[in-house]
From TrEMBL:
This is Phospholipid transport system transporter-binding protein. Pfam families: STAS_2 (PF13466). It comes from the Bacteria. It comes from Sphaerotilus uruguayifluvii. Residues 18-100 form the STAS domain. Gene3D superfamilies: STAS domain. SUPFAM superfamilies: SpoIIaa-like (SSF52091).
Length: 100
């Protein structure tokens, strides 16, 4: 299973972190995937999810795929400020233990 550490971070998003907001759902999956693919080559893996208000299995799949891609290149995904929707989805799919 992939490692998706989550951390409470300062109120401001770090400059090099990607902040996602809105939905991490099947409806937005393609657009979010494109944004993540653009971000992937230039990141250290910090992702601010404080603005996400909906997250379903498609959103979780995106996070797991992102984690795997980062790990393959020697980096790790760190979720900063996961919203309640993200935390609940991680719990729903049995991934709550991945929040560090």
């Amino acid at each position: 299973m992939s490692d998706i550490p989550c951390a409470d971070a300062p109120a401001e998003t770090p400059v090099d972190a990607l902040a996602l907001d809105g939905e991490l759902t099947i409806v937005q999956a393609a657009a979010v995937r494109e944004r993540l693919l653009e971000w992937l080559p230039q990141t250290d893996g910090r992702l601010d999810l404080s603005g996400v208000h909906a997250c379903d299995s498609a959103g979780i799949q995106l996070l797991l795929a992102l984690s795997r891609s980062l790990r393959e290149s020697g980096r790790t995904l760190q979720i900063l400020q996961p919203s309640t929707a993200v935390v609940e989805s991680l719990q729903r799919y049995g991934l709550d233990a991945l929040r560090a």
